[in-house]
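can u do me a favor
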């Protein structure tokens, strides 16, 4: 697999080796040892999630203030623009974001470590989004930052207002949100 650093060194783009011919393709979507070698630490995943969303749906920016989740994310169908925001107050990249297009065609994955908010917007007619997490979902610790916080300044590359859940419409601005030390 090919591993590419982003402007926030802890967030990585992972591209598997894809073997294809006229019948289709094959790739290893996850290998624990290869992943641990790529991120330079022993990461254990405890939960797999799968969502489907229509074009223009924006999910995020989510994180858990306790039981923080590292996420390995990918797209099985469609295309999304995926974003990670550093919420680690002690980090030199606190409040900064990185984004990557993930699609069924490029097979890219994004490693979003614990301590980051995460979100994505669907660019295709629909998308199926898959992700592994390093801790269990704990709704009592879930927090949300507003997708359009001007202090973060994410360029979502969308032309219209996104479709948001009620929860995401209530997201906080970064300067009012609980963050990691």
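np, heres the sequence
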């Amino acid at each position: 697999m090919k591993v590419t650093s982003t402007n926030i060194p802890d967030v990585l783009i992972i591209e598997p080796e894809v073997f294809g011919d006229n019948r289709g393709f094959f790739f290893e979507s996850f290998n624990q040892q290869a992943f641990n070698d790529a991120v330079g630490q022993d990461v254990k995943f405890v939960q797999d999630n799968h969502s489907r969303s229509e074009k223009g749906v924006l999910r995020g920016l989510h994180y858990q203030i306790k039981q923080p989740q590292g996420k390995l994310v990918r797209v099985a169908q469609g295309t999304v623009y995926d974003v990670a925001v550093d919420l680690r107050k002690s980090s030199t990249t606190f409040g900064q974001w990185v984004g990557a297009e993930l699609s069924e065609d490029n097979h890219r994955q994004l490693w979003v470590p614990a301590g980051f908010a995460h979100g994505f917007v669907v660019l295709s007619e629909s998308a199926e989004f898959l992700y592994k997490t390093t801790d269990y979902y704990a709704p009592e610790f879930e927090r949300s930052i507003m997708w359009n916080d001007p202090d973060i300044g994410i360029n979502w590359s969308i032309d219209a207002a996104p479709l948001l859940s009620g929860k995401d419409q209530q997201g906080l601005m970064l300067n009012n949100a609980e963050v990691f030390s």
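The chain is about 5% helix and 40% strand. hope that helps!!
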